[in-house]
Amino acid sequence: MTRRSKDTIRKAAIVAAGVAMIASLAILTSARIQSRFVESQSGSALVFIDKYVDEPLRAEFTAGIDSYTGGFLKAARLLGEAPIRGPVAFFAADRHYGVISANDPLVKRRLSGRPSSDFVLFRSIGSNFYANELVARSIASQDGAYVFVNIDEGWRASLVHAYAHSIAAANAPAALSPAFVLDQDFDSEMKFSYRFADETFALLASDLLELAEDLGSVEQAWSSFSAATARRYADPESDVAAREAEIIMATYDLPQKSAEFYAACNGFASWLLDAYGRDALCAAARTFFSGRYDGLDDPFIAFGGLEKAVLEWKGDATIPR
Fold it and tell me: CA 174, CA 196: separation in Å to the nearest integer?
């Protein structure tokens, strides 16, 4: 081999090594490698799953999103056609939301152009050990844009619960803006009424899913709903009461929604079911989740409106808070 050939080979090796080094650096500094999340997609929504979650569980969660959100709500007849708007992104974390950060390179890149308030929300969620609701290991943002779920053995019910909140908020009619926006038009009474209706239907959805998994079918879940769920919310030793006690002990403060509030929402749904039947209750849920109503009385029109239904249920029209 001539000296020129040797020089050519040496130079080629140097160039190849340089290219490999540059490629390695590009890969190692890429958003996907630097991120704490594995990214996928469900329909039009982004899905960010904590890398610490085992790969089989990540795959199961991603594959099950549609089945345990809109799919289940349709199977239970709580949802008609797909809602016009849904979550922008699902965040699935392992045990807590400390992984969620506005500075995560993948999240920052994929959600570029979103309002800055979204990233303030991520900081708040990520630092709040008790962000989840008492009844589920999940939470949804107020505007419905984001669903946050802890992946554990109960992730399916947690997922549908937060998703129900998400689509209700994302599709809420403009007439309800005084319940969402803290400005001079904010209406606290409307807020409390919306909050009660919203939780009634979200809780109905997640309780039905849990029962369907335990009993084997949605039909059996409906048949046993009132008696089976009442035990959970009436029992002072229930998981809901235990979580509330833990939060009070750790923070010296009440959670945003108390165990008593969830019990009221469950009691109201059970009473509507027993007094008016499944068809009427399902129709109310479908109207509420679609956002195709002008005021909160509209979803409850079959019961004479929301306040009248509450009055008939508990003897006065005061909305539980």
Answer: 18
